[in-house]
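TEACHING EXERCISE
Course module: macromolecular assemblies
Task: Read the component lines below, then compare them to the predicted structure of the full complex.
Student: A.B.
Group: 4
Components provided:
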Amino acid sequence: MKTKDVKIAILRIEGTNCEQESHDAFKRLGANPEFVHLKQLLNIDCNQDEKRDIFDYQCLMIPGGFSAGDYIRAGAIFAARIKSKLQKKLVEFVKQEYPILGICNGFQVLTELGLLPGIDNIVSSSPEACLNINDSNRFECRPTLLKHENNGKCVFSSKIPKNDIRLIPSAHAEGKLLFPLNKQKKCLDALEENDQIVFRYVDPDGNYAGYPWNPNGSISNIAGICNSQGNVFGMMPHPERTFYRHQHPDWTSTGLNDDSGDGRAIFESVLEYICKKI
Amino acid sequence: MFEAKVTVRLKKGISDPEGVNTLKALHLLGFETVKNAKTIRTFDLLIDRKNKSDVKKDVEQMCQRLLTNPVIHTYEIEIEEK
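Instructor-supplied answer key:
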């Protein structure tokens, strides 16, 4: 498949607000993204020509925002609406190794859906992890440094060398990844063993550091994980916000080089995966 | 008709930054006798069912599928006929 033919659904409901830059990231790389309201996939309140099927696309992205006002818990209502009618198709989509990306609120949705962490099964009937309120009890909005730790499982980071440190901004109030307290170590060991840890928060020297380098208190400094197949990926920071080098806060002192930002490789990686797969 | 009251609490050991900050603010306002503050969320649900045990089953499902995340929450359900 050629990049220009790759169709990506940028899924939204009320309160989604990062869809434009997410769409643009794929568009700038020559792919074919489309804004899709969840109602179009659920076939509710839409005209015949607006109806869509998840299998019309080769990739699904749930962008950042405050879907449904973050009521109940961040991402819970978006996830419940997806579960209501789309669960079976979504699981089939994952089984067929199509990629799903969740950024920020999208990561929260994938966790509430039970698609992440996806250690033993493709989907769990109830959430097996939680993105809880930041330890600071504040909305943390600033550049964060992420160390790429994946050994090749995740299809969204294949173009990033291992141990590379990337500057990708965070902007969230609920990003503290947690597993059930009595299974915390077991879950972390399984994630390590299955190569499911993709990014960890670090300081400028690459050390795992506490606040403010880890903006939320996330366990083991985790910023992004994939499922055990590697095709469902969620991260709290926003790679679409450092697509270009000139979006980095220090570009005037470090130079633009080829104007490629630190987040671009996420989108390049998945497009390369899809083009090779299909 | 039944009214179900769902009380959602954070599990023991889960941090409660909202509670901690509330405690700090209460101390700043001079309420130094307050030794702890925890946040709890409640949902009052009006349910059109004939049988109380069916209501209980439904609300259990609601808690598991939407109202709570079992990783961090515990819940209690109280049901009253209206």
